[in-house]
Design goal:
It is a single chain. This protein is α+β, with helices and mostly antiparallel strands. 22% of the residues lie in helices and 23% in strands. The chain has one domain: Phage tail protein-like (STM4215-like), CATH 3.30.2000. The longest helix is centred in the middle third of the chain and has 17 residues. The chain is elongated, with a radius of gyration of 24 Å.
């Protein structure tokens, strides 16, 4: 299981995967909001990863990891998260759309070919994950995409959304244990019950 570095480690893993496996090189893969101006020295062609939403995974919510910890412990399952990324292509110029389209298609092909991120692309902070880090193309409507771009106050660019599931962050709060059965209170015989009238 991972610690607080898990979310950043997923972004880093996707970046490493794209940089290693894309055919359309040289390519820069950045992890930033779409409204951040990034100066690229070597080339202006790049793919940007923007983490725009983090959800709690409904399937693993309140589920403990099997075989982990004391069987009598309860109340402290790991935090299971789904991450939503916007993948955007930037070509040689804003006017030339063909280059951006080819760049985006190449990146999508990589994420399709590698739907589960494994070594050597998996960040070291995710090595102890119980669940695999899986990538899914997440269809967004034009309206949903427009809302994201409106929020960052930039003109809309060719983009697609991916969901990454599941990332588990270990709970550091000590677990609770049920109190063991002990001796009955003073004055009460075992197996008996005293009632008091109010």
């Amino acid at each position: 299981m991972s610690d607080f570095r898990a979310i950043g480690a997923v972004s880093n893993s996707i970046r490493d995967l794209l940089e290693a496996e894309m055919v359309n090189k040289p390519i820069n893969v950045t992890v930033a909001a779409p409204d951040v101006d990034i100066t690229i020295v070597d080339t202006t062609r790049r793919i940007n990863l923007f983490l725009y939403k983090v959800d709690e995974n409904g399937s693993l919510k309140n589920m403990d990891v099997p075989g982990r910890g004391h069987p009598a412990a309860f109340g402290r399952p790991p935090l299971a998260l789904d991450l939503h990324y916007l993948l955007t292509a930037y070509g040689l110029s804003d006017e030339e759309q063909i280059g951006s389209q080819e760049l985006l298609a190449d990146a999508m092909r990589v994420l399709h070919d590698f739907p589960i991120i494994l070594s050597p692309h998996l960040d070291v902070a995710l090595k102890n994950e119980i669940e695999h880090v899986k990538l899914y193309l997440e269809p967004l409507s034009l309206e949903e995409l427009s809302k994201i771009w409106s929020a960052v106050t930039k003109p809309m660019r060719l983009s697609v959304s991916y969901m990454v599931t599941v990332v588990q962050i270990e709970n550091l709060v000590p677990r609770k244990f049920a109190r063991p059965v002990g001796e009955p209170p003073v004055g009460v015989r075992a197996g008996s019950c005293r009632w008091r009238r109010s």
